Description:
The protein is α/β, with parallel strands linked by helices. It is 37% helix and 21% strand.
Amino acid sequence: MRSEFIERYDLRVPRYTSYPTAPHFGPSVDGARYEAWLGDLDPALPLSLYLHVAYCAEMCWFCACHTKATKKYAPVADYLEAMLDEARLVARRLPARMLVNHIHFGGGSPTLLTPSDFGRALASLREYYNVALDAEIAVELDPRTADEAYIAAMARAGVTRASVGVQDFEPRVQRAINRIQPYDVTARVIGWLRAAGVAAVNMDFCYGLPYQTVESLLGTVDKAAGLGPSRIALFGYAHVPWMKSHQRLIPEEALPGPAERWRQYEAASARLVAHGYVSVGLDHFARPDDPMALACGAGRLRRNFQGYTTDGAPVLIGFGASAIGALPQGYVANELAIERYKARVRAGELAVTRGIAVSGEDRLRRAVIDRLMCDMAVDLDEVAAMHGADAAGFAAELQSLAPLEADGIVRREGHRLAMTEDGRPLVRAVCAVFDSYLGTGEARHSKAV
């Protein structure tokens, strides 16, 4: 990447896991409106379920997730009961016992749940919803808190995919982000997963962490590839201490500067491709035979609040404090504070406190942004026609893209746009051109790379 692009285009822009993005959600969408939206759903639509386990054993300083550290299990058990209560409340407001093709446990650390509680949670979901026999059931897994018995229980409960959090194998980096996780711990857990029959294993890493260098990150990438995961996510560390106060514990002077972040991203991406992985979207890599790589090649890749996904369900139901859902009518977000969340659910109320209804114009722009994020290209004529619009309505946006086109970030042929290989890391900056909400409100976003 040319050095002059770093300052010009590495701007603070949304990650575009939704459109409109979460900073633009408001109180006009509440529990009552959510209830009406649920009741109006087509009973034939498949669902995707997300359970947000909002607790960890300890706080990792790099983390930007909504979570709370605890050394006791009682708060976790109490919170799980509230989530299962919420799952039952939502199910009662649906027009039928609807089909579920995908379940995702995230956090926080789902591995804080006891084996019996994890199994009970899935059994409850199967009671309330029509969970498909071949549903993908995915769990975010912290190798530091997962033991062999827990993994065996996950497999018995039907888990088909595990996402193993690592971030970096370098001890100095781990100390700086308060996540001490030796390589052997991770390798042992992956061995347990495969022995239990959970063959689909993802691994998550970050670049831009304190004390990282290109050389140290490449060492981490090589070790990761040696473990043979089917997917690898390579996220840019988002340093947002104004949003997450614990990030102030990270030594800012040890963070790599913008130019070094670029070099880390490019070097790690190239090394993963050299190891045989296919580049998927902005920051994911997959084995060529993995469903995500196949979906990407076929133009079926999707993006939701968990990032890139093969999940095509038009309805995502979120359970837990801060959980976000997506419905054809719009987006909903639950109460952030755990105690207030539990109180609302136990009062028999839906816990949604904010959201946004999407307009036809929102759906059109969301489709443009989704295709750019997933395919690194978009045919504006094709997308506009699918939404009863005319691509000529994007004349101002195309004019705004002229500098990026001149710099070789994006190519344009009529109304078709395609990111160049050099421009791929800047896709979020191109998406931002089509974001009619950007610049309103008080949101502060992470850097584009």
